[in-house]
Write a structure and sequence with these properties.
Strands 1, 2, 3, 4, 5, 6 and 7 form a 7-stranded mixed β-sheet that branches. With 134 residues, this protein is of the alpha+beta class. The chain contains 4 helices and 7 strands, in the order ααββαβββββα. The radius of gyration is 14 Å and the shape is globular.
Length: 134
């Protein structure tokens, strides 16, 4: 079952990178919690599918081209951990930018995605969920 969860999370990133934003959103539950890095300009909250839509719409308005690069992933049964970076071409500047790697932890409850939380690094994510994937 947990490998299916990993694939489902990776499919969301793939759909987003392919520009199939509405399809990616439709795969999220109505009541998902979406917690972003505290260094981002707009902290939210981003609750539910519509909250996630607001978050991604703001990013898409900032970048001419935007992508998510999955660097690594870990299957922890009730958590899927994804090490990633985001990048793109700034809409106003025309400059290519890439973020440093950061960690997203997707939490499952009763076989449904319940939460996605971003962490600045793997160590912070490990401490937050109390699990190690090394």
């Amino acid at each position: 079952m947990s490998q299916e969860r990993v694939e489902r999370v990776l499919d969301l990133y793939r759909l987003f990178n392919e520009g199939k934003f509405d399809q990616a959103l439709s795969d999220l539950p109505d009541e998902i919690e979406w917690v972003v890095l505290d260094v981002l300009p707009d902290q939210g909250p981003y609750d539910g599918r519509e909250g996630v839509r607001r978050f991604w719409t703001a990013w898409l308005e900032t970048f001419e081209e935007f992508r998510i690069d999955v660097l690594d992933r870990h299957d922890l049964d009730d958590h899927v951990v994804v090490i990633m970076r985001v990048g793109g071409t700034g809409r106003d500047s025309g400059l290519d930018v890439d973020s440093p790697p950061f960690t997203a932890v997707w939490t499952w409850r009763d076989d449904e995605l319940a939460r996605m939380e971003m962490f600045p690094d793997e160590n912070t994510a490990r401490a937050a969920i109390g699990k190690d994937w090394r």
